[in-house]
Amino acid sequence: MFKAAFGQSLFAYCIDVRLKLAQQQVLYSNLSLEQVSEKTGFQNYPHFCRVFRDRFGHPPREYRRQFGFQFNHE
Question: How far apart are the first and last CA of the chain?
Answer without folding.
Answer: 52
